[in-house]
Amino acid sequence: MSIAQKSPIQREVVRSDLKESGQPNTRFLQNIWYFAAWSADVLQEPLARLIIEQPVVLFRTREGDVAALRNVCPHRFTPLSMGKVVGDTIECLYHGLRFAPSGQCVHNPHSETIPKAACVRRYPVAERDGIVWIWMGAAELADESTIVRYPELNQPDLFTYTCGQTMEMPLSYELMTDNLMDLSHVAFTHKTTLGSEGLVPGQTEVREEGDSIWCLRMAPNTKPAPSFSMSGACSEDDLVDYWLDICWDAPANFYLTSGHAPAGQGRYHGAQIDSLQVLTPSSATQCYYFFIHFRNYRRDDDAMTQELAKFIRQAFATEDEPMIASVQKHMGGRALEEMKPVLLTCDAGAMRVRRARERLLDLEANSGVLTERRE
Ligand code: FES
Ligand SMILES: [Fe+2]
């Protein structure tokens, strides 16, 4: 039975069960493109992912196309990612069945015939801007024109890029989304790395543009952030206008443009570090964090590129992760609104995104086109 066919009462039971186990009753959008991997990380070998609670294996064929299959062999349920890529197929490690990118078993070493049921679910994939996107919902609805594009990832005349990085975070993608949409935390949580105290009294504006939600922050005439001064954008004693503007698109894609201009000049007149940061939920309490940073200054300094990538990753791992992990632990699976948090002006962007995401989830739940979940 598909989830769409379940009555609202049955659906409520499923959600309550989850809640009693201390897990948040998170809903996930199905009919949307998720960031599955950086293109450079998908090779002719299996790559396992857990995306919205569905196990997936990705691999590349000899022609260079990406295949995405359910990561469960239909024989004895071994993860196909334990096996290997043979030609354009993936071979199960346990008894050697081979599956084509279509999901169909094409080789059975135990018999001349291939059992009818020997196939696995295939997920639509598309590569854009150096990213492998995967469609987790009904395959017939996959429309590549709805992939959110990031042409900034292909502008080597303007930017120098770090490598695309991936972290597996033991964190809810919803709490991580709140964290990214409220960058006032940078002044406190990242005081010695990405922060500047001027960001707190800085001006903040939330703006909707089409399906995107922007949260714009400007701290005029403030001290530089260590990430900019250590990378040679300015000196520690300078006064700068620091902007930090982030844009959300569903399900959890963020474009962040940040920079330092000499005080009084405002946005886009100085050193800029932009980034794409994308969260792909694995489960209610785990997500992948994909990010890449690119800058418009000291363009030829390769050592600086490496150092900046390490510096920022370290800030995410040692400053954001423990903070959100402790919040998640304290919440114990309860919904944010249920806990009646104190609301501050800095919450405006995060709350706007929460409302937009709920609207999309309700729309999908009421549309009757959710895909069947095969466990
Ligand atoms: S479990 Fe995969 S072939 Fe037997
Ligand atoms: Fe942060």
Describe this structure in words.
Keywords: 2Fe-2S, Iron, Iron-sulfur, Metal-binding, Oxidoreductase. Pfam families: Rieske, VanA_C. This is Phenylpropionate dioxygenase-like ring-hydroxylating dioxygenase large terminal subunit. Residues 33-134 form the Rieske domain. InterPro entries: Cholesterol_7-desaturase, Rieske_2Fe-2S, Rieske_2Fe-2S_sf, VanA_C_cat. The N and C termini lie close together (12 Å). The longest helix is centred in the last third of the chain and has 30 residues, at 302-331. The chain has 375 residues and is an alpha+beta fold. The strands form four sheets. Strands 11, 12, 13, 14, 15, 16, 17 and 18 form an eight-stranded antiparallel sheet that branches. The chain has a four-stranded antiparallel sheet with strand order 5-6-7-8, with no helix packed on it. The chain folds into two domains: 38-146, Rieske [2Fe-2S] iron-sulphur domain (Rieske Iron-sulfur Protein, 3-layer Sandwich), CATH 2.102.10.10; 151-364, Naphthalene 1,2-dioxygenase Alpha Subunit, Chain A, domain 1, CATH 3.90.380.10. The chain has helices at 8-20, 173-181, 186-189, 226-230, 302-331, 348-367, and strands spanning 33-38, 47-51, 54-60, 66-70, 84-86, 89-91, 98-99, 105-107, 125-128, 131-135, 160-161, 165-169, 203-209, 212-222, 240-249, 253-262, 271-283, 286-295. Helices cover 22% and strands 30% of the residues. FE2/S2 (inorganic) cluster binds next to loops. Fe (ii) ion binds next to loops.
